[in-house]
Write a structure and sequence with these properties.
Distance between the termini: 80 Å
Order of helices and strands: HEHHE
Mean pLDDT: 74
Radius of gyration: 26 Å
Number of helices: 3
Number of strands: 2
Shape: globular
Helix content: 55-70%
Oligomer: single chain
Structural class: mainly alpha
Strand order of the largest sheet: 1-2
């Protein structure tokens, strides 16, 4: 009898686990659907932003040994409060895929 009670309890735990997995799976499908819907509009607006950014006045600098994208953004773009936004603008303007800099590299920096 105790084995039967334990088996029923185990089955209930398993059903509860499956129900939880169902909701997690459903949430994941929903999230992927939303991202698939939203992502194209974000991607479509990025070229417009880059085109606008490229028409703004810039200053060209040469990267020095020890410079980082953050330090350059901090020095040249003080009117933008977010360091992340500053670095992203520099990366977009210079068609950079990561923040790695090489001494001697030239960068266009949005002018304030």
């Amino acid at each position: 009898m105790m084995d039967r009670v334990q088996n029923i309890a185990d089955e209930n735990d398993f059903r509860h686990h499956l129900q939880g997995s169902y909701w997690v799976g459903l949430a994941a499908v929903f999230l992927v659907s939303v991202l698939a819907f939203v992502t194209p509009s974000v991607q479509a607006s990025q070229p417009d932003f880059v085109a606008q950014l490229q028409q703004e006045p810039t200053v060209t600098i040469t990267v020095q040994q020890g410079d980082t994208l953050s330090s350059i953004a901090q020095h040249y773009m003080q009117s933008i409060p977010s360091i992340t936004e500053r670095t992203q603008r520099i990366m977009l303007l210079n068609n950079m895929h990561n923040s790695t800099l090489i001494a001697g590299q030239t960068l266009r920096i949005p002018q304030e």
